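Morning F.,

Quick status update on the modeling queue. The single chain you submitted on Monday has been processed. Sequence for confirmation:
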Amino acid sequence: MHNKRTLQVILGFILVLAVAACDGLAGEPQIVQTLPPITTVPENLDAPVSLSRGAVIYAENCVRCHGSAGAGNGELVLSGDVQNVPDFT
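Structure tokens below.
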């Protein structure tokens, strides 16, 4: 009878230790891998093809918020539909 009680105490202690070990990182923030910064610079950024393609992309996707000069004063900002647009000038 004494051995059975001792075994129950030991198993209970092991169970408590196992649960405590599983809870070790529960309150810690999730570890997120960060990417290293880009260290290469694209070549030929001043090439006429790159500039004209960039102008088309900007006109199609950016000018309504950032404005034609990039000052953050496009039509959607002036109408109040969009707020907090950065000034790229």
